[in-house]
Design a protein that fits this description.
single chain; 7 helices; 5 strands; 3-stranded antiparallel β-sheet; mainly alpha
Length: about 140
């Protein structure tokens, strides 16, 4: 099989070039392809299928490690996309002071779900985690 250039560009764009995500979506594209060339249409179906696979496995595994309170903190971060978020803004959205949510943040850091890129900021440690959380909120 060969790849159509538009299909390759689409996969790279949709996965933001993250190797594991690209691998999952490319495999899903390969699985749905009917002809000798993997097309843009195949890639679109593959991305949907690949994301569902990532949601059910990769993201779900990490998400389930968080407590309900930690999930609320992660959801408050999702408004900023993949971030970084200002810690004070996240605390405010959470209805708390920055000091009172420090333990949530510290535990999430220890669980490798977030990191601190700069003083006063917090960001997801997993690429595209904000999109996953947003998708969970809709279901």
């Amino acid at each position: 099989m060969s790849w159509d250039e538009d299909a390759v560009r689409y996969l790279i764009t949709e996965t933001e070039g993250h190797p594991y995500f690209l691998q999952q979506c490319a495999q899903a594209t390969w699985d749905v392809a009917m002809g000798p060339t993997l097309t843009f249409a195949d890639a679109r179906v593959g991305v949907v299928s690949g994301r569902a696979h990532l949601d059910a496995g990769f993201y779900r595994t990490h998400w389930e490690r968080a407590t309900l309170a930690q999930k609320a903190y992660l959801k408050a971060m999702a408004r900023d996309g993949d971030g970084p978020s200002q810690s004070a803004d996240v605390a405010d959205r959470h209805g708390k002071t920055p000091m009172s949510v420090g333990s949530f943040r510290d535990t999430l850091i220890k669980k490798s779900l977030v990191f601190v890129p700069r003083h006063g900021q917090v960001a997801y440690a997993l690429p595209e985690m904000a999109d996953f959380i947003t998708r969970q909120s809709r279901t």
